[in-house]
Request: fold
Amino acid sequence: MTRVLSVASECVPLIKTGGLADVAGALPGALAPLGVEMRTLLPAYPKVRAALGEGPRHELGEVFGGPAALIEGQLGEAVLYALDAPHLFDRPGGPYLDEGGHDFPDNPRRFAALSQVAARLAAEGIGDWHPEVLHVHDWQAGLAPLYLSQMAPKRRVGTLLTIHNIAFQGMAPPSEIGPLGLPEADFGPEGYEFWGQVSALKAGLVWSDRITTVSPTYAEELLTPEFGMGLDGLLTARRDALSGILNGIDTAAWAPPYRTPRGKPRHRARLRHEMGLPEAEGPLCVVISRLSHQKGLDVLLDALPALIDHGGQLALLGSGDPALESAFRQAAEHPNVATRIGYDEALSKRMVAGGDAILVPSRFEPCGLTQLYGLSHGTLPLVARTGGLNDTVIDANPMALQAGAATGLQFHPVTASGLAGAFARLHALWRAPGHWQRMMKNAMALDVGWDVSAQAYATLYRDLISAP
Ligand code: ADP
Ligand code: GLC
Reply:
């Protein structure tokens, strides 16, 4: 058995704001059959505490100004540790934001605490369980490999950082160096300093043995100034340590309610009814997304006439940027546009089942999960040609159509006219039912689960352990 401690700030089914939670929640179960025992460390936010109840506790003493302990629980068949530190995690709001939607001012300390405890567990073990690999996710766990390098582990522990999104870098002012217990000497361009600030993500990129991101294309993109967000130079220097491993989805949780494309019309009719959309000749397009600049939904607003003027419809579920929320509410005044602001997993499943196409016009997308849900349901993805969207959708160009391989549409650049052009192609395909049905079949036949990628992680862990 390979022993891996995975450290993340969110994890389904306990707490989720985005795809990171799905990945952290799926990995232990996907890896177990491959001889990897993954245990997960997560902050004990109120929701997590409530879900775990009174599991066994391991006292940790004082951590960053208050008492802390691990509560042991289960994540499916796997062990989960929740870091119970009430002064850091027991408060109303989400994992990162208070009830007013503002970052908690002590976020650098909250997640430095998570990282420091992770390093300690890696160095000392938990009872008689000694991890061989410390796998940390995003900036929230990014300081762990640096903390670990300052400890004297009883045995060697390999470290891996997975970048789910390089846009979030975990910045803190230099006045935090002391309180976070960071080595002053490493506050420089070769270390964890970034534009005069502390960057937890950069620390992870410098101190981890290996780095992955969640798709091969995003791994390449990260080496460019356009996508690297200032860290492209460092990543280029570390390119031998960097690779991309595509996300999968939980195919049991996202099993379509039908086995062939013939099952869709019933669900589409129900969805139209639920969303208050009229019957229509054109395709029903759905969006399920955080409403943020990354996701390119402002571009969708601009290109909307090109969808609905040809008889298409839009149903959107999302929340986030207040300006986008109100713009989509306003767009819904059109009879063929429906908007639901909020977070609703059950509705998201009905939308994926009932939609004809799923739109993901992201400016950048490390992997993206909703296009994978779409594929498995024959809900054809119309996506920007970037990151994991590029790696998971085969564009319906003439060659792919002729070869019978297409599974969706890609477009580029992410501009209103780029997207309008894609809508024109979408409508043409819709009117060529032979092509559309074939694409639905292709999409539904794909393997979008975790099997292949879990193998890739297992191999990487073993490389890390055997590395000199
Ligand atoms: P990101 O992590 O960048 O937000 P992903 O596509 O990787 O993007 O993951 C987003 C996840 O969150 C998906 O599981 C998606 O279905 C879910 N999601 C996003 N917004 C909503 C919403 N408003 N309601 C329900 N689920 C949502
Ligand atoms: C991030 C990315 C998304 C990815 C998810 C899980 O939130 O924005 O593209 O699918 O992490 O890796």
About this structure: The domain at 2-248+450-466 is CATH 3.40.50.2000 (Rossmann fold).
